[in-house]
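Lab notebook: predicted structure, single chain.

Context: the supervisor wants predicted structures on file for every construct in the current expression panel, including those that have not yet been purified. This is the next one on the list. No modifications to the sequence; it matches the entry in the shared construct table.
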Amino acid sequence: MFDGGTYAAPDEWQSGDLGYGYTSNDNTIQGSNIFNSLPCLGGGNPPCYAPFTQTAPGDILVDHTATISGTSVVNENFIVTHRVTTSSDQQAGDYQTTIIFTITAIY
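Prediction complete. Output recorded below exactly as produced.
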């Protein structure tokens, strides 16, 4: 996993950072701008990256917490960007992982 930041304090992907991480363009995750704040909560400049959690229930990557009344939400889009950097001695080959995204509507 990405070795530079955490979900609570994502940081800029620096030139020595290794691993697999993500960032999101949602600037109000649970009311906080954790992936695009200036500076990043873990240091550096946005975009701010975090490692994927390996424990349930996982981390919130995007959300819509505002009350919707009257008019429905239309064309709300978010982008989650994945990034991988390996060490120079990493063997070439095919690698794989599984990511589970859970989408929950709350009425």
